[in-house]
Amino acid sequence: QQDNFKQVIAHAKEYGYIFSSSEIYDGLSAVYDYGQNGAELKKNIKEYWWKSMVQLHDNIVGLDAAILMHPTTWKASGHVDAFNDPLIDNKDSKKRYRADVLVEDYAEKINQKAQKEIAKARKRFGDKFDEEEFVNTNPRVIRYKKEEKEILERLAKSLTNEDLADVKALIEELGIACPESGSKNWTDVKQFNLMFGTKLGASADSATDLYLRPETAQGIFVNFANVQKTGRMKIPFGIAQIGKAFRNEIVARQFIFRQREFEQMEMQFFVRPGEELTWFEKWKETRQKWHESLGLGKENYRFHDHEKMAHYANAATDIEFNFPFGFKELEGIHSRTDFDLKAHEKHSGKKLQFFDPEMNKNYVPYVIETSIGLDRMFLAVFSSSLQEEELEGGTTRTVLKLPAILAPYKAAILPLVKKDGLPEIAQELLDDLKWDFNVTYDEKDAVGRRYRRQDAAGTPFCITIDHDTKEDKQVTVRNRDTMEQKRIPMAEVKAMLAKEVDF
Ligand code: ATP
């Protein structure tokens, strides 16, 4: 697994997807830059989300709020007082860790043991394998699952009660060692606020303390009345937003999974009080379908209902993804009650209510939130698409099987040779296609090598122009995933691409 993860990171760099930030200065920890292909993939993920959430829903509209917000926002939201992570130091290595992440990683290792047993049994029983029955009857798997659940429940309870001594006790009882040094010599657990501070104004005495937003959601809540009134929105309705968020994360590892500067794609859905749990279930289902529509593999997802609830929520679930380092949170769905709007009413003195004509009364709406990290989605797509394939004849190829709709380039146009007028025809085709699709051109090396290069870069189609093209006006289309080649009229390439990379 660790090797697999290293390969993902190396491949992301080699093919221009992700670089360390300010790499020439040796990088900045937990901050990353997206390269020429990464910027395209990221943009395509955003578009896919925005189209599904905003364009396809009559009652959801977009918003683009500023990163800097009035400082009272963060008092009202609870972030000043409660946006804390429990930290623990190892006395020998002097390294600092998030106590909850240490325990979660330990629990994940137990889960991996269960998954191994399941995989072994699947191999043994083949088609006859009934996973559900196996999980419910195999004593080892039952024991692992029980152990994992008990640990997570105890952690959740201690965190909810802010019982930091018990979090430490749990780490000691489980015998969790420092990942760096192997030492089990831990300090007490302490809380640490994750918000990045900054200053507004030039002179030191008149400057106001601000925070870089740690989530995009609050920009939506403070604009609730603006959007509702000017858009004449009726409950139920939603506001969606994509934007940067900043957290001074202590555990800076796992590549783009946990960054200090990242992007969120969030949607807050406003509903009648009392109807929130029905909508919560609906949004769980809708979001699950969204993920499944990309075809990354159903088995790579799992729902994790929360026992540990944030102070504002009355129901919460995580959609977890099977990242190269195990199942971890990709998206959160929360029923946030009327906590945020009520808190902003209280701190601002402004009404944040809706007059419901059917009920003939005013109320503060309840909120269902769907919140997904764009960078985590990027990692999910990228890591599950990267495959090493065995080919006939004992060779292998590296292929990045990105969903075509998300791929940076939809097609590469390749003249078979660099002469005989073939580059000119290729260029003509490229000039025609580029108005509708992001396409690339490559004439260097033998065509087989160019195919491999495009496979590894994630380009779903290669379109080759050869000598026959001059006569029959046909081109060879090679499919990245099946490696099948077929000849089609050049005039049909555009329609073929439209069909294959359509929403
Ligand atoms: P975690 O427990 O992993 O720290 P969280 O529960 O604090 O995450 P939320 O506050 O629910 O995360 O944020 C919503 C989403 O934003 C997460 O599901 C995740 O995809 C993304 N996210 C949160 N923190 C980061 C980060 N530091 N880097 C990248 N993405 C993040």
TrEMBL record:
Keyword field: Ligase
UniProt EC number: 6.1.1.14
Highest taxon listed in the record's lineage: Bacteria
The name this protein goes by in its record: Glycine--tRNA ligase
Gene: glyQS
